[in-house]
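Input/output pair, single chain:
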Amino acid sequence: MKREEIIRDIHGLDAELAALEEQYGLLSSDFYHCYRAGELEQSRDFIRWAGFFEAQQERERATALHA
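Output:
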C-alpha cells in the first residue's frame, strides 16, 4: 500500500472514529481500553468501533514505516 493510500485510509477512519466518539461521548483510546478489558458489551457499534480503532493504529504504524 502506498503512503498516499494509507493516509487516505487514516482520514476515513478518523471520520468514523470521530462520529462514534461524539455519539458515545468517549475518546477512542479510552473506549478501546475499556473494550479490551471486557468492561463494555459486545454490541455491533462497539465491535465496529474496535475494528476502526485497530485499523487506524495499524495504518499509523504503516505511515511511520514509509516515512
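Residues 3-66 form one domain. The longest helix spans residues 44-66.
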